[in-house]
Amino acid sequence: MAAAPFIGTVGATAVNKQVSSAPQSVAAAPAAAKAQVRQVVLKTGMAGGKMVYLDEKGNANPVLRGNVGDTIEVTISSGEGAEHDIVFEGLNVTSPKFDRKSGPVKVSFKLAQSGKFTYFCSIPGHRQIGMEGTLEVTGPADASAAAKPAAKVMGAAPATSTGGVAAIAPAAANAVVISQDPNAVPRPLGARAPQLVKYAIETVELEGRLDDGTTFTYWTFAKKVPGPMLRVKEGDTVEVALTNNPNSKAVHSIDLHAATGGLGGGESTQVAPGETKTITFKALNPGLYVYHCATPSVAHHISAGMYGLILVEPKAGLPKVDKEFYVMQGDLYTKHAFGTKGHHEYSQERAADELPTYYTFNGSVGALTKEHKMSVKVGETVRVFFGVGGPNKVSSFHVIGEIFDRVYSEGATNTVKQNVQTTLVPAGGATITEFKVQYPGKYLLVDHSLSRAGKGLVGALEVTGKADGTVYKASDKPMADMAH
């Protein structure tokens, strides 16, 4: 039988209409056409700022058409290199996932029922950003085809369901430390005139250490969680060139809360693997701001590590301190329970229900207790630039054994609170805390929603120096004896 080309059109026909799978009546149906094999060639790409499926003529999300009894053969590839699949809703047809490395895959299925059926990408967020089209099938239902397998897949083995959570894979042997060093704070800028400040940032997907014997596939800015801290001056012009590593499986972007316009840059920096896009913005408002990836599913990209802080120093600068630290909190959602050894995968379901498996400071369990050291001396003044990447949970930031002398609430540099014990920081928000350390010992950084400490959320500040008994004193003697 000769293969027939698919029929594809673009328009408002059925992309957003309700899907109907009711068979047409035999009496009303036109004369049955001879069954054909209809070959569909698609690739994924970007059009109009959205992810889409493209036909051979470059039409976005083309309407596919066929008759009952026809066989549809879809050959599909990743045009921009990111990972995708194609699902035909209501037809029990799902392709394997594919990307630039895998090459094209093929899925073949017989049309047994008339109606309008939606096709889409099931990668979280991709359907929402535009990867959705329609298959229109005409003719009476073919009852003889109902019992036949729905689809034949070529190019990779389809995933199978075990009816529950699959066994966890071994921890990645090549996992690296992704946690950001809290000491990695750019130097204060001092008094200077506004200028052009350029940053080049690469998004990288890599296997990273989550906990002892536990790994996770992180999505990062510059291979660290959080990404690099950026420091500019009020009035500066900021140029950010975002490059997506060629080995990435996802499109990435950057939304800087310090930028005005263009969805903070997220509108203009949807960057496919191997590409670079650049934005320029004016730093109009001083303060401490979060930046993060803004590619759907945004929650997945942020939870997997794509967040950081940008400080816009006020024109007069910030008061001088002895030591500055960079700390960010995140909530991570995995398919297996906290502490399970092996390689964890992201759970879209737990993220949707806002049920984190892990909470982290700087990306991993032990980042601020085992992997990196925060240390100061008695008498020094400490400044902590603290932010919450999220994507979902608010932080009650507290340092056990200390009081914040000053808090720049919500990162605003024109409002300073004094003598604060615990400060609220919203998801996607930040704060600046300052305090003078007056007694040696270990001070613990926590979220005072303290159950989260048992899920990884604790850091340590080591203070060395001479103890002052008038500040703090401990004794095993009863109170009466201490009075003499």
Please give a structural write-up.
Cu cation binds at residues 252, 257, 292-293, 301, 306, 448. It is an enzyme of class 1 (oxidoreductase). It comes from Ramlibacter cellulosilyticus. One of its GO terms (cellular component) is periplasmic space. The chain folds into 2 domains: 3-154, Cupredoxins -  blue copper proteins (Immunoglobulin-like), CATH 2.60.40.420; 196-464, Immunoglobulin-like (Sandwich). Helix content is 4%, strand content 39%. The strands form 6 sheets. Strands 1, 3, 4, 6, 9 and 12 form a 6-stranded mixed β-sheet that branches. It has a 6-stranded mixed β-sheet with strand order 2-5-11-10-7-8, with no helix packed on it. Strands 23-21-25-30-27-28 form a 6-stranded mixed β-sheet. The protein has 484 residues and is mostly beta strands. A hairpin with a 2-residue loop joins strand 3 (37-47) and strand 4.
The CATH level-2 architecture of the largest domain is identified as Sandwich
Task: Please tell me the total number of domains.
Answer: 2
Proportion of helical residues:
under 10%
Beta content: 35-45%
Radius of gyration: 28 Å
How many strand elements?
32
pLDDT < 50 runs, ≥5 residues:
1-31, 143-150, 156-163
CATH topology of the largest domain: Immunoglobulin-like
Mean pLDDT rating: 89
Distance between the termini: 106 Å
DSSP summary: helix tally? 4
Protein name: Copper-containing nitrite reductase
Family: Belongs to the multicopper oxidase family.
Cofactor: Cu(+); Cu(2+)
Keywords: Copper, Metal-binding, Oxidoreductase, Periplasm, Repeat
